[in-house]
Design a protein that fits this description.
Two copies of one chain form a homodimer. By secondary structure, chain A is of the alpha/beta class. In chain A, 37% of the residues lie in helices and 20% in strands. The first copy, chain A, has helices at 18-36, 43-50, 54-66, 131-148, 186-194, 203-214, 272-281, 285-303, 313-317, 319-335, 358-368, and strands at 41-42, 70-75, 85-89, 95-101, 105-112, 117-124, 154-161, 165-166, 171-172, 198-202, 222-227, 231-237, 240-241, 307-311, 348-351. In chain A, the strands form four sheets. Chain A has a five-stranded mixed sheet. In chain A, strands 13-12-11-14-15 form a five-stranded mixed sheet, with helices on both faces. In chain A, strands 1-3-2 form a three-stranded antiparallel sheet. At the A-B interface, helix 1, strand 12, helix 8 and helix 10 of A face helix 1, strand 12, helix 8 and helix 10 of B. Chain A binds a DNA duplex (30 and 30 nucleotides) through helix 1 and helix 3.
DNA sequence: TCCACTTAAGCAACGCTGTTGCCAAAGTGC
DNA sequence: GCACTTTGGCAACAGCGTTGCTTAAGTGGA
């Protein structure tokens, strides 16, 4: 048995056959059921939002009900005829494990199908102590997590840690201060150790994926900026997490915003990360926020971003100065974009919900997302 | 009849049925035929690259041949059995018109299915003279273009002009120096005038789409930087043109790379465009190239870009200084990314092929691309 | 109280997709 | 000249969403 059996639709074989068609539509319906949340959706509403015929939706939902993934949940009020039956996702039908491996701490969550964490554990971690110790800790914590919950059907494990790494192969490229991790196949090691399929991704990507699920409307683009010991970003473009060809996208910290600026650890000058962290160290929070804000404005401008979300320890320690400073830069940018009919309000900035658990939640979402279709369509509340 | 009948797969109705399945696979095969070029591909190779069975490929290619889009073209040398029959795209089976409406000039091309221009026309244009004059010129030039060629089956017209505009509605947002164009529905106006389906997009997006077709391997990401009277970019991410939710992506010129730098026309300070154009005006080409290069490096870093292509009048006027300056910045960036196994060579920079006709060629590609599937899979040369 | 109407959802037959099993065609090489 | 390999078509098939029709379950006016 291969150690990585998670569904990977379409990536390798772009040709589509009947099973692929069925899988696509099933995932689509599941995604709408999930987006509907506790309120549920009727079959006809699903038909309207997918473009499928009501009969097709009936067949698909019948399969989902027989598999225990969906259930009927009462009826709507009549609108002049037979009242619609409401369908709902069964959150506990499957679960996924999300692991956040930070430099000094491990966070593990068990998430249900809605992405909600039904159990959580934290443990200190010494990443530079090497693979064996880390894997032992992971095994122990995940075992405890699964024992606590009655969770049937664990689909797999999502692992998130600081980059750089390769999402497609599941291999770490470089870990600051721990050269022996170079090239370590973390995904397969975790999968073998736990006996579960695994996915590996950068912490910022996982967080962005998790935040995308929590957003009110599904499509659109947003950027998640994570300021902790370093500065990185997760990009969701047109409703899809963008990783880049080598999982290298989102390297936001070394964007240069000041030609001939102060030298950065990376060797270049004027990187946002250097400006930000130096300002924070010097107690100049407005200055740090301004540098972050200029970077955010560049991001918004370049990628036509809808919203900016901030997270990471440093931001969480001083939320107001950062939110205010970034908002100020985005407002300044918006003022310059007026002119014709294209004038629009400043892009909003907010604190990423989920706080310190955002990355672990997102790691679970790495496993869950494929079930619900890559691109989640918007379900407008009628 | 609506004035815009171009195929728009999947955007509105994400649900897939049998016609959608068929269309998807047909486009996939057509895309591979196109990528194979004059050499052609055998049915079994198509099967291997799509993941479809050879029999399915036979059925699909039989349809394509009966529609005149594909043809048999000789045989391969035998490898120990029956020699494979080579299939080839029939370039002249369909055509598309590409229009580049620049501020002072119109370029029109008639492209065959491979994207090659089989006819071309140029005419002076006064964009600020208003819609009626522009449409009249367009009608005259397109008529002349179609009369010269014996091109049957014109699929539609792709229109490219400077932004900002909305690709989905085909409406111009703002034209510098010509406020009466604000909100003008250019796409529908062109479609009605010519009696052909039309698509509208930004000049940089069209150019990037056209350049994507011309690239050796289909997937991956690249950025096209266009420096003319302004500075803009076209982004192809994971083999797909990224437009952003409001066709606003690629606004590269007002990326800030120098905090508190010289004031830009847009009102902010330190924009790349301001730095670049001021340097060019002052005869400081290395300085202009350096500003452009820093912006390119930021782009590469943020989006994990494979290649940078340069175009536009100003670059075409002084190719060497710009290529050299940008290459220098990308090399400086690559040096700082060493460390572990993730070390990789500097991202390459090159002049965009096609020169002054790149945008018009890309405009035709706006029409052609949907036929060949959005995401073109790589066809490795065995 | 009844009946016409509306809306929701299932049953059965159907068309069309890619798949499977089999066979003919057309080469190579001993 | 024969065994073998490789290519590609023919025919029957399974399974997808669709269509046409029927049943279920309400509302609302006469």
């Amino acid at each position: 048995m291969s150690s990585n059996d998670l569904p990977s639709l379409g990536a390798g074989s772009p040709g589509a056959n009947l099973p692929a068609l069925r899988g696509h539509n099933t995932a689509l319906v599941l995604g709408l059921l999930r987006a509907a949340g506790g309120e549920g959706v009727s079959r006809l509403e699903l038909a309207a939002h997918t473009g499928l015929t009501p009969q097709a939706v009936s067949k698909i939902t019948a399969r989902l009900r027989s598999e225990g993934l969906a259930a009927e949940a009462g009826r709507r009020a009549s609108t002049g005829g037979k009242p619609a039956t409401v369908l709902r996702l069964v959150p506990g039908a499957r679960h996924a494990v999300g692991l956040h491996l930070d430099r000094d701490e491990l966070t593990a969550v068990l998430a249900d199908l809605t992405g909600r964490a039904v159990a959580e554990r934290r443990a200190p971690l010494a990443f530079e102590a090497g693979a064996e110790q880390v894997l032992t800790t992971v095994e122990r914590e995940v075992a405890a997590l699964l024992a606590a919950a009655d969770g049937p059907g664990v689909l797999g494990v999502g692992v998130a840690c600081p980059g750089p790494l390769d999402h497609t192969t599941g291999v770490l490229h470089r870990v600051t201060g721990a050269p022996r991790w170079d090239g370590f196949p973390l995904r397969d090691a975790v999968a073998a150790r736990l006996g579960l399929p695994a996915v590996l991704d950068k912490d910022t990507n996982a967080a962005a994926l998790g935040l995308d699920r929590a957003r009110p409307d599904g499509t659109g683009s947003f950027g998640y900026l994570h300021l902790g010991t370093g500065l990185g970003a997760g990009l969701v473009l047109d409703g899809t997490l963008y990783r880049g060809p080598r999982t290298g996208a989102g390297e936001f910290g070394h964007q240069i915003v000041q030609l001939d600026g102060p030298r950065c650890d990376c060797g270049r000058q004027g990187c946002i990360e250097a400006l930000c962290l130096a300002a924070v160290a010097g107690g100049d929070l407005p200055g740090a926020a301004r540098a972050l804000g200029v970077g955010a404005a560049n991001l918004v401008e370049l990628l036509d971003i809808d919203q900016v979300l901030l997270g990471g320890r440093t931001v969480l320690a001083y939320p107001e100065p950062f939110l205010g400073g970034v908002a100020r830069e985005l407002a300044a940018q918006a003022r310059t974009r007026g002119g014709g009919s294209g004038a629009r309000p400043a892009v909003s900035v907010a604190l990423a919900p989920g706080g310190a658990r955002a990355v672990a939640d997102g790691a679970a979402e790495l496993v869950l997302a494929p079930l619900f279709g890559a691109r989640r369509p918007a379900l407008r509340p009628r």
